[in-house]
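Lecture 7 notes: from sequence to structure.
We start with the chain below.
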Amino acid sequence: MAEEYLNLPYTDLSRFDLKSGQKSIHHTHGDGAGDEILFQFQPGMMVRILDLHDVAAGEDSLRMPGGKVMIVCKLEGDSTLSRADEEEMALHAGSLWVCYSDHDLDIVETSDGQGRYLLVMLVCEPEVFTQEPFDLDIVQLPESLQRAIAGEESVAERYSISSGLARSLRNLLEGLGHSVWNRAFLQAKTVEIACVAVRNILDEELQKQRAHISAREIKIINRAAQVLQEQWQRPPSLDDLVKLLGIGKSRLTCCFKMIHGCTIGGFILNVKMLHAQALLAEGQLNITQVALEVGYEHASNFASAFKRHTGMTPKLYQKSVLNLLPNH
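Predicted structure tokens for the same chain:
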């Protein structure tokens, strides 16, 4: 059951610790009536929903907690956040912000008084994305989150809410209040929204980076991918690729990741796993033979890599595929 409150100040985000539970606050004051919901069913990650109507134009002083990553999704209403020594943050409808400070911040929010104010915010421990159920390496995260994990003094990066993220947020809002499944629903939606938001941010960062890649570099990277696909069993070394393609090592690795979304080593692994899946689906070779075919001396190493890549063991994958075939 959610704890219910009336007219608690909604300007101090540090008033609730990141601990399990759900709280609901009904606001009835004149400068914005509505509801605020806070819940934390996923360790290290709290969700805050603020849905106010009839918001008047004016200013509010906010306290932003230090040492926490805030992923802020503004769905309706326009406002700006400002502090004395920083430029303003435009919190417009459709905007997505990643914010972090290594200390508590006092911020002024100015609203234009257009009526409804609808915001969904994730307040996270910086390292949460490197832990279960996400288990991401730091290098797999958006640059803004990497900077927060590194403990940078201040991070404030703006993105746009994608259609996929908007859909996940709306599903969350529409599903609130179904009490029988409420806890499981909210925990699942927390993880989903976190994943979709990170992907949203990564995609936008990649688009910005790709804008700085020349046509010549794109051609070189496409050639590199072709060589790796053709020679995946004995892939050339990075030094050999540099000599073959006539591009600097750092530029090759940087552009390759921007275009393909993975490192050169990750690309080779993807190709290997695709060939492994094809061999397993044919059903002519056992697991050890498939492992040898794709370059693994030990079947156990292959099985571990295959499961990390596909979420299934080779044996289970082969069995599931063969069961779908007629007369098998």
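Points to note: The chain is about 40% helix and 25% strand. The first strand starts at residue 3 and ends at 6.
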